[in-house]
Amino acid sequence: METLSHLGHGFSVAFSPMNLLWCLVGTTLGTAIGVLPGLGPALTIALLLPITYQVAPEASFILFAGIYYGAMYGGSTTSILLNTPGESATIVTALEGNRMARSGRGGAALATSAIGSFVAGTIGTLGVAFLAPVVVKFALAFGPAEYFSLMVLAFITVSAVLGSSSVRGLTSLFIGFVIGMIGVDLQTGQPRFTFGMNDLLDGVDVIIAAVGLFAVGETLYMASRRYAGKDEIVPLKGSLYMTAAEWRRSWKPWLRGAFIGFPIGAMPAGGAEIPTFLSYAIEKKLSKHKREFGTVGAIEGVAGPEAANNASAAGVLVPMLTLGLPTSATAAIMLSAFQSYGINPGPLLLTTQADLVWGLIASLFIANVILVILNLPLIGLWVRLLKIPAPQLYAGILVFATVGTYGISQSPIDLVILYLLGAAGFLMRRFDFPTAPVIIGMILGPLAETQFRRAMTISNGDWSVFYTHKLSLVLLILAFIGLAGPHIWAFIEHRRRRGPEHVPGDA
Amino acid sequence: MLNRRRFLMSTAAAGAAGFVATHLTPAFAQDAPQIQIFVPAAPGGGWDQTGRTIDQVLRSEKLISGSQITNVGGAGGTVGLPQFISQWKGKGNSLMVAGMVMVGAIIANKSANNLSEVTPIARLTGEFEALVVPADSPFKTAGDFVAALKADPTKVPVAGGSAGGSDHILFGLIAKTVGVPATNLSYVPFAGGGEALSALLGNQVAAGISGFGEFSEQIKAGALRLLAISADKRQDGIDAPTMKEAGIDVELFNWRGVFAPPGVSDADKAAMVTMIETMAKSDAWATECKNRNWTPILLTGDDYAKFLADDTARITAILKDLGLA
């Protein structure tokens, strides 16, 4: 109950007119930069850091938190409408969301992502307020061995996006591994696959790869198809927002997404991408409309991952506020903002800066409300984008993707990479190789490798760490069930129903 | 009052994809010069903060009328350095922020360019490093740690920043001084301070090495025990011996400084040194350093150049021992 009184006090800080204004500015700016690929919340907050010389700490953190949450909302808009993910956490949203948009359900996809973000953001923020000390304990129990097993579990999500042929899907996955390996190896400091080019030392940005493969590749493919006289985009079909059936199909994925996203976000190396992958795989497994996945677009595949990424955004704040641990680029920059005020974020932050922390948490609730109010009416405006005739729309997407990519590092090399990957995306599309596994490979491959090598360094080469650590073992068993379970189940079903005839002598 | 130009600059940058900021021309001009600051790292990191703090203090001390900050990030600064050398050549009003991390990155990445090609202006700040262990670790003193390391270095996994960075270099130096072969060390690199910290708090590793500021709050809260610091002398308010006092003959500051481009005139160089010296002696600079846990270790001109050569030699040697160069 102490928490409630703190929170009440927090609201009294956040509800001052000036702070509300900062919150509004932050959420609006955050939505805008979330829409642009390349310009993420971390960079924006970094560029706004000088503001800390001028305004009170509460105000600047409320602004930063608004930007952070806003970017998570905005990132999904371009994923859904233009197949151009604005943030790495919304890459999965593009998979089903863009298909929904093409089949005339763009409004519903945007609505389920906005409302799902609100629901999950609120659950996540409640988690920050009430569960932070418990969650952080659980999160710290995760060492390299556990992370590696979590990655193994995440790899089963690949099977959800493989498409019709496993060979083609796995080929894509391995292409992703190779691209993900480019750059300086963190464990040894040595460059790999850089071919002597300085610009490749930091590797290929996953956003550039996603924009290249999804947006540019798709655009080239569509352009090539137009000569065949096909135009696939259905402007808008049925209700602008969600139908009753779509509500029924969305609410469970929202909740599941939130409960996957929050704890993983709170883990120091959890991040926002893995929960979206896991949520997508789970929703695909549980959905009664499996046929819609990868064809006309399934709303569960948007609702779950969108909820997961917003809940993980809240989760990231748990180690930051309770222990002073920055676990994402954005959190790290927010912590450096604390330092410009002479506040050292750490385990004592909650007690020494109660006003600031609780004001921040309260403003997160407010930011969530503002964001859903801001985003729902915008849907009507956004979906009109799809009424633009295809040639102009696709030309616009190319311009948008190019400008956004240049914004990441102002490096012309990045543009070359973007268009090379775009060409690769076109060829993959043409020859029916799925592109999503490339991105999954790029994200999970290096993470799994790093954690595996760390675990082996710490254990001095002893493999048993992966099954003697209880958490790690549980995750590996879950991964095994996820991978082999459906096959075993199908086999048993098969035997039970048709066993006597098909396997004589065994009945 | 919010400084309007600054605010406009930042929002314009945020709104219109970063690069706009670097091309904005200030709306006013005074007697004080305009300068350009080149940060070979993405916004938000240590060098960027150094650059922006220099800008802030120079402005508040009225030493400059305005500045433009350009960020070219990547690979420990080795992406930005060639640009600074080729494209900024001879520009007497320009400064690049760099530091020890770049010296290491140049060696490890086998970069074509190095810091001997630019003009050293001043070493400004340093962060000394800390050797810490989890609160319930059996190591009570730096001596315990060294004894365990000597007994079997593979049993003492140490967490820190990226391979070949200042933390790894310090670990290598410690091992070298106490006579443990650097190749046997079990060093676990993490990308960011937060991840390394959580590995320590979760008892995943035996010890940690990183900038003191990364650990200071956890030490204060009793979650970590500080065994030794790499500073040259005891620090006020820090209850731990220096490495030298603890019997490890190592001293290390993760230093940061500023450089002018190659080919600037002696007059420009002298003016720049004077300006940075004035700034570094101001109260405003002292306050910023205190807030950010930076130790002011001012060294200018030729002394700085000599220091740079010595430090490069020391780092090259240790990276060779660690098998990274």
From TrEMBL, chain B:
Coiled coil: none annotated. It holds the Pfam family TctC. This is Tripartite tricarboxylate transporter substrate-binding protein. Belongs to the UPF0065 (bug) family. Keywords: Signal. Gene3D superfamilies: Bordetella uptake gene, domain 1, Periplasmic binding protein-like II. Residues 1-29 form the signal peptide. It comes from Mesorhizobium caraganae. InterPro entries: BUG (IPR005064), Bug_dom1 (IPR042100), TAT_signal (IPR006311).
